[in-house]
Design goal:
The complex is a heterodimer of chains A (381) and B (140).
Chain A: E1 7-14, H1 25-40, E2 49-52, H2 60-68, E3 74-76, H3 84-97, E4 103-110, H4 138-153, H5 157-171, H6 185-190, E5 193-195, E6 198-199, E7 209-217, H7 218-221, E8 229-239, H8 252-264, E9 273-276, H9 281-291, H10 299-302, H11 321-325, H12 332-344, E10 357-365, E11 371-379
Parallel strand pairs in A: 2-3, 2-4, 9-10
Antiparallel strand pairs in A: 1-7, 1-8, 4-7, 5-6, 8-11, 10-11
Chain B: H1 20-27, E1 32-36, E2 42-43, E3 58-62, E4 66-75, E5 89-96, E6 101-106, E7 119-126, E8 132-138
Antiparallel strand pairs in B: 1-2, 1-3, 4-5, 4-7, 5-6, 7-8
Classes of the chains: A alpha/beta (381), B mainly beta (140).
């Protein structure tokens, strides 16, 4: 049994806010759902599946059902960091295909910038006691991957910086992006080092934000307002410390990329643009290698020369990414929304020409400790 | 009278029954990892079952305390109490000679001198009466 071409994204809406001290995360979530349903030509009554992550409290999904006043037939609050919403689309597709529900809403809202919650202290995971005494940080976890990559393959800070520069160029063409003034490689290298070798401008921004996408069956998708964006293939997994034996430059994408391509029945040459989770510049570089767009160790050269620009040979993160547009702690939602907009041809000056097939890759958690990964392949054909 | 020692303010491990032998050994200034008696797999961090075969039959192996820097980062920003007062510090994975990689801090070394592949040795830091941490310094 395959999920290929059985379901489609039929509604997508990105909340324009980047700072919302006057709103709750639940309000941003509800506004996002409203926007996505209007985009699809559906109403709240049509929604019989709800998927979300990041709500306050361990049972936040029930609070969300209460807030939205819905009694769905399918609920999924898989919480695997920023990649969660990419997982949710795959889970929605599986649930719809299995007959559990008909119309799934994948929703998100966050006020992390206007009401930051401290984190980084001791947690309750079994591994935490072996890590928190040594001062791990999110950026430090990714920085250790960057340091090892530079050591093994000669990858340079300039190569990583080009990812940030290209992403900012894209943000300059997105009116709701948080940072829109163009930057140079020298600007990135001159910004302070947060955790070596990563500079401030190698790091994602912190913003409020939210969004929603609506997933339904291929059959029902035919009657919607907009052109459906079909799911061709999906895969998910996790990588971790592997009993102390992990090869740290192999990420979740190594497994999920291969599976997603097999399941979609397409090859790398078919991908017209990609949305790659850019928590940090190094995340993009190692993800592209692990997905097989270039060989391991060749990511540095691959990202140079404008290849990743909207008008380059392999456009990525055309909305301005987490590095420049928005990163409300979790970014998976915005990967889905921009890929959908590109496949519908709605991206104006940053539109990728002849965009038929897109790849979405979410990475959640801490790359140098434990992370989740999910890959989707989407097409307007 | 000598000055009272400054209170240790960094996060402490929440020791449980699976990890207690590891932390008790560190108090004796000994570093142990686990080995499965059934399949032979070495593992870090400590768990009651093997991550290869789920066997509960576990042997504790005393480590030489020597290894090499696998990767590292010089941390310039961390707002967690205890760390924000000790910036910059070096967080690293050290690959022990026994094979496993463990997360730690590198000490007794200027951050700019740290290199991947550098030989290091364990130093035991008694941070509270109950807790000793295994950190690493350049091998002597």
């Amino acid at each position: 049994m395959s999920l290929k071409h059985k379901t489609a994204i039929v509604g997508a809406w990105e909340h324009p806010t980047r700072f919302a001290p006057d709103k709750s995360a639940f309000q941003i979530t509800a506004e996002s759902l409203h926007g996505a349903l209007l985009d699809a030509g559906l109403t709240l009554k049509d929604v019989d599946g709800i998927l979300s992550s990041g709500m306050a409290g361990g049972m936040g999904i029930i609070a969300l059902c209460d807030y939205l006043n819905i009694q769905p037939n399918f609920i999924d609050s898989t919480s695997v960091g920023g990649a969660s919403f990419v997982f949710h689309v795959a889970h929605a597709a599986a649930a719809i295909n299995a007959g559990l529900c008909n119309v799934c809403a994948v929703v998100f809202g966050s006020t992390v910038a206007s009401r930051p919650a401290g984190f980084g202290g001791g947690g309750a995971d079994p591994s935490d006691q072996y890590e928190v005494p040594f001062g791990p940080t999110t950026v430090g976890s990714y920085a250790m991957i960057a340091e090892r990559h530079m050591h093994d393959y000669g990858t340079t800070p300039e190569q990583l910086a080009e990812i940030a520069v290209t992403t900012r160029l894209h943000a300059s063409m997105n009116p709701v992006a948080k940072y829109r003034n163009p930057i140079t490689i020298n600007d990135v290298l001159a910004s302070r080092i947060i955790s070596s070798p990563l500079h401030l401008l190698d790091c994602c921004i912190i913003s409020d934000g939210g969004g929603a996408v609506i997933v339904t069956s291929e059959e029902r998708a035919r009657d919607m307002k907009k052109k459906p964006v079909y799911l061709l293939g999906a895969a998910e997994t996790a990588r971790h410390t592997s009993d102390g034996h992990r090869d740290f430059l192999e990420t979740a994408a190594f497994q999920t990329g291969k599976l997603a391509f097999e399941r979609a029945g397409v090859t790398h040459k078919d991908i017209d643009m990609a949305m790659i989770y850019d928590s940090f510049t190094i995340t993009v570089l190692v993800t592209l290698e692990n997905l097989g767009f270039c060989k391991r160790g060749e990511g540095g050269a691959f990202v140079q020369g404008g290849r990743l620009r909207y008008d380059g040979a392999f456009p990525i993160n055309t909305d301005g990414g987490g590095l420049s547009s928005c990163h409300p702690m979790m970014r998976g939602m915005f990967l889905l929304i921009e890929a959908t907009r590109q496949l519908r041809g709605e991206c104006g000056p940053r539109q990728v020409k002849n965009c038929l097939t897109a790849l979405v890759n979410g990475t959640g958690g801490a790359l140098g400790q434990r992370h989740s990964g999910a890959t989707l392949i989407l097409s307007n054909q | 009278m000598a000055d009272a020692p400054k209170k240790y303010s960094k996060p402490l491990p929440q020791i449980d029954e699976e990890s207690r032998p590891y932390w008790e050994a560190l108090q004796r200034h000994e570093l142990y990892i686990q080995k499965c008696r059934d399949c032979g797999e070495l593992r870090y961090y400590s768990r009651a079952q093997c991550g290869q075969c789920l066997s509960p039959s576990t042997e504790w192996i005393r480590c030489s305390g020597r290894g090499k820097v696998y990767t590292f980062t010089v941390t310039n920003q961390n707002n967690v109490a205890g760390f924000r007062e000790s910036l910059p510090y070096v967080m690293a994975y050290v690959q022990l000679d026994e094979g496993v990689k463990i997360l730690t801090n590198l000490v007794d070394c200027a951050p700019q001198q740290v290199k991947i592949g550098m030989p290091v040795e364990v130093v035991y830091e008694d941070v509270t009466p109950e807790v000793t941490l295994a950190k690493f310094r350049p091998a002597r």
